[in-house]
Amino acid sequence: MIISPSPPPPKSPARLSQPKQAAADIPVFVTAPAIDTVVNSTDSAANHGTNFLTWLKGGVISHRIIINDAKARVHTVDGTAFLVSPDIFKRYALEHPEIEREAKERDLEAWQIVQRAFEKLKKHRKTPAGLNIWTCLVKGPRKSKQLRGYLLTEPTDVFSEVPYDNPVISLADLADKEPSE
């Protein structure tokens, strides 16, 4: 009797993970949409301002965007939100790189497109001189500096509950005037 060698069993691939499970055993997770979901996935120019405010409010609520801190780009001044410009718009543009393509077509920086769209919403106060940008004075223990940005007309556009004003920041126009006796 001649015994022919049987072929060796097929090599099983090295396992680097758990064994496969039946489909019924695999848990399925459904996630809710993020707070800062954009209004339109194409993010057309008309929606940049609205999407920015949605992102900003969601970021403040979730604490991804800090407020009233030395490095913060959102502060509470004069009972409302003060948005440091252009820094807050630059951060939004960095987190939304799809705006860059439109910016190149229009020969602008991405943050400028967002800032202009925000201005068109008319959600900010104008200075007594009719300007969009306010100047705030920051008085720290060692030095003072200035911040420039937008004051919102409605603090609830950014805050769910309006925090106290940042004690080290004041509007430059109001800080320069002496209180009348």
Explain this structure.
Strand 1 and strand 2 form a beta hairpin. The chain has a 5-stranded antiparallel sheet. The chain has a single domain (43-176), classed as Beta Barrel (Thrombin, subunit H), CATH 2.40.10.200. The protein has 181 residues and is of the alpha+beta class. The protein is globular, with a radius of gyration of 27 Å. Helix 3 (99-105) packs across helix 4 (110-120). The longest helix is centred in the N-terminal third of the chain and has 14 residues, at 48-61. It has 5 helices and 5 strands. The N and C termini lie far apart (122 Å).
Radius of gyration: 27 Å
Order of strands, widest sheet? 1-2-4-3-5
CATH architecture: Beta Barrel
Task: Summarize model confidence as the mean pLDDT.
Answer: 79
The level-1 CATH class = Mainly Beta
Give the number of DSSP strands: 5
By CATH, the superfamily comes out as: STY4665 C-terminal domain-like
Number of helices: 5
Topology-level CATH name: Thrombin, subunit H
**Span from first to last CA?**
122 Å
Number of domains: 1
User: Which stretches of 5+ consecutive residues score pLDDT under 50?
Assistant: 12-43, 175-181
Largest sheet: 5 strands, antiparallel
The H/E string reads HEEHHHEEEH
Q: What fraction strand?
A: 5-15%
* Overall shape: globular
Fraction of residues in H or I helices:
25-40%
Supply the helix-strand structural class: alpha+beta
